[in-house]
Every structure is written in C-alpha cells, then in structure tokens.
Amino acid sequence: MVMDVHHYHPFSVYFIASILFVFFILYKLVQSWSSSNSSSNLPPGPTTLPLIGNLHQLVGSLPHHSLKLLADKYGPLMHLKLGEVSNIIVTSPDIAQEVLKTHDVNFSDRPNLASARTVSYNNTNIVFSPYGEYWRQVRKICTVELLTTKRVQSFQSIREEEMVELVKKIAASEGCAVNLTQNIFPMTYGIAARAAFGKKSRYQQVFISKIEEQLKLMGGFSLADLYPSSRVLEIAERVKFEKIHKEIDRVLQDIIDEHRNRSECEVVEDLVDVLLKYQQENDSESVLTDDNIKAVIQDIFVGGGETSSSVVEWGMSELIRNPRVMEKAQAEVRRVYGKKGYVDETELQKLIYLKSIIKETLRLHPPAPLLAPRESRERCEINGYEISSKTRVIINAWAIGRNAEYWTEAESFKPERFLNNCIDFKGADFAFMPFGGGRRICPGITFAIPNIELPLAQLLYHFDWKLPNNMKNEELDMTESGGITLRRKNDLCLIPITHQTQM
Ligand code: HEM
C-alpha cells in the first residue's frame, strides 16, 4: 500500500503536467488557427490549418503548378499561410502591375531567408540584399561595368569561341545520340565564368560543379524559411550549406587573390578587376569587402549560366516537338547565314522568327517560374484587400504566361503570336515577365539574349535533329524538375545529322 502511494504521487504530478501541456498546445493551435482565419480583409484563400497553415496544399507537385490550381479556385490575388509566414500569390497581369508598378517601392524588398543567408554572404549579393543603398551600389556597378550593351558586345569573341567548341563536339557524335543538356550548361557557364573572372580559369570546372551542387540543395521550400522564429531550424539550415559554401568560398578567394597578384599588363579587365578597383578607390564607408565581391560574382555566374542554358534546352525540346516550327527556323537561319557559311553574331538581329521562338519558350518555360520572392515594406491595399508589412509576395509568372484569358491556345507552342507586335520581356508587359519587373527586374537581359540566340542559331544552322530510338516527336518527355530554376527533369538527348550547307 505504502509502495502504491509512493508510486502514485510522482506519476500524478507528471500526469497533471502532461495534461496541462496538451491543453497548452491545443490552446496555441486554436489561437493560431483562429487568428489566421479571422482577419476579414485579407485576400481570399483556403482555410489554414494550425501550425502548417496551407503547406499541405503544396505537397505533391511543383509549387508553381499547385499555386496555379489554387489560384484557379481563389482568384489572382490569394492569401496563403505557409508555415508561420503570410504570403500573397499573384496570378494575373493586373495584380502583377499593381505590385511591380503602382506599389513598386513598397514591394522592392526581398525576404531575409535563412536558406539564402549563408550562400549569399549574409545577403550581400544583388539578388537577396535588402532594398537600400548597398543594393543600389552593387547593382549599379554590375549594370554599368558588365551588363551594358557595349560591354556585352565586348564578350562576342568569348561566346563565339565557346560555340565553336560546342559545334565541334556535337559534330563528332554525328548520327549518335548526344546529351545536349550536358553540353549546353557547361558552355553557358563557361561564358559567364570568362566574363566574370577572365580567361579560362583553372578553377572554372570545380567552381561550376560546386555551384551546381549548391543550387540542388537550394531547390524547394526550406523549413527554416517557413518557420523563421525557430532558432533550431535556422542552425540546421546553416549547417546544411556550410560545407559546400566553404568550398565555394575557397575557390572564389583564390580567384580574387590571383587577380590581385597579376601584373597590370596581362589584364583584359573582367568583373573581378572592376570590383577590386572599386574596392581600392572608394572611401571606407562605401568600400566593398572581399565577401561582398564574392557574393556578387556568384550572382553573375549563376544568373549568367543557369537561366540562359535552360532556355536553350527548352527551346530545342519545343522545336523537336514542333517540326513545322523547326523547319521554319532552320530555313531562316540558313537563309541569313547561307552566304557566309558560318554563324556569328553580326546577323543575329535578322533572325526575327528565332527571336519569337525564344519569347515563346520564355512564356511557357520561364527559368524562374515564381520570379524571386519579394516582401512588402509597409502595409498597403491592393484591390481593396489589406496587405500588411512583411508579407511575402510570390508572383507566378509561369501561370500568368499560360493564362487562357490573355493568351489564345495558351498551352500550345506558337512563336507566331510574337510576330508583328511589340510584346516584350523588358518589364512593360505584365502578361509576359520571365525577367520580372519594377526596379528589381533582372539586370542581365542584355547579357542573356546572345547566350540564347547564338547557340540556338548554331544548332539549327549546322544540324538536322531527330529523337533516339525511333521515338515520335510528340513523345518527347517535357516533365519539369523541381529546383531553383525550371530545368527539364530528364536530360535532352538528340541525334544530330550534319547539314550540308549550300554555298
Ligand atoms: C534567360 C535568362 C534570365 C532570366 C529568365 C532571369 C530571370 C530573373 C528574374 C525573374 C529575376 C527576379 C526579378 C524580380 O524580382 O522581378 C532576376 C533577377 C536577377 N538576375 Fe536574372 N535572369 C536571367 C539572366 C541573368 C543574367 C545573364 C544575369 C547576369 C549576368 C542575371 C542577373 C540577375 C541579378 C543580379 C538579379 C537580381 C536583381 C535584383 O534583385 O535587383 N540574370 N533574374
């Protein structure tokens, strides 16, 4: 009996404590549920669940797909709670215009994401730096020194050299299946690397593979970004990236040191030189640290390599699936370059049909389907709904590009829709914005376009193409992969047949 009492007492204390704890959790859940479902003036959206909000509604397919399905039900301005964070999802050109034009300044911030902090040297790259003086400064250096039309033209010989290598490699596999994906990505990265840190660096290959590894880790939603109040998740996120970040950092520091130590006469100025010069010349207040420089070089490298390659890859995929378009494009390229006998940059302006093919590819396969996340700085109203400060903004450019209200036969690949009109991707047409819009629009458009036009023109001029294993054109798999950019899930493998040019 005595034993029983002794045994019973401690148990009952734990028991009561556990009951109280369960009640406390239930109370918190109900509280968070009712607060997230009660605000009357939020944009419409599905009911949120305790703790996870609407996360369960994004499970199972790629985020831009599930967000489109939800928007079909709840409208083009939708509210979702993802984890503990309020988001608005924009799925129409009108609302995109409100965000990117009418309220441009208010939505020019980026959220402070745990997943980005380590790799972006504490948000000191261009993409993730908060809207303000530092962002203005680094963005300006890059646009003025690297991304102007004149500077981009000066990289012409780099592009042409890399293309010759590509054509040679493909021609060597005449009649056999070639993995185009594995040829295109390194080539475009090679161009970006040479523009950013000069003549082929001995670090180039290792840098490319490390960056690809890092991009894979960055794909998908990160728990730490969904629950920013959790210190544990934040630390876990940092640990996840620490090893790869250290490796990349070592390569970048070597590149910077190598640039510092070389003699002036051997220099053809590249981005690293420009940033180092800026570092030396400026007063201590606006000086760039080595970490700032590394953050910016990474931006240019990833922006310059990853996105343009995926457009070339999707463009070739669509051309194979649409033989009529392929023939018309080949006829144009072969007519324009027929006399010359080779493709260079001087005639690219004449490839009107190819340009419309690239626009159509960007409409259906924007490399950044949800652009880059934004965050509101202050409370504001859109369409009569209240958007509080620090709300994250996701613009579903992929869904807007496929919206049947704005595009006829929206799911079909029809480059002709871009002929004889001036719809462009420079930020004025909110139904078509693969490069985003407003003051944080992609600054790399001028750099990107020749990196897409030139390889496509080469591939169309030199080769006819067919699918391996007697596959029919329409059977080509077009599944997308999840990740930071919208790549093909499976590599694109095609058989090249060298085209005999008639002089
Ligand atoms: C087809 C090629 C490309 C596509 C589709 C693309 C797309 C984008 C998008 C959607 C954004 C976010 C814009 C926004 O928030 O509204 C962005 C930002 C950015 N892109 Fe690109 N990009 C491409 C090529 C490039 C290139 C070649 C570079 C540099 C050489 C580059 C550098 C950047 C940078 C630095 C930002 C951050 C801008 C800021 O936050 O102020 N991009 N890009």
From TrEMBL:
Pfam families: p450 (PF00067). PROSITE patterns: CYTOCHROME_P450. The chain crosses the membrane at residues 12-30. Heme binds at residue 442. Keywords: Heme, Iron, Membrane, Metal-binding, Monooxygenase, Oxidoreductase, Transmembrane, Transmembrane helix. Its cofactor is heme. GO terms for molecular function: heme binding; iron ion binding; monooxygenase activity; oxidoreductase activity, acting on paired donors, with incorporation or reduction of molecular oxygen. InterPro entries: Cyt_P450, Cyt_P450_CS, Cyt_P450_E_grp-I, Cyt_P450_sf. It comes from the Eukaryota. Gene3D superfamilies: Cytochrome P450. Belongs to the cytochrome P450 family. This is Cytochrome P450.
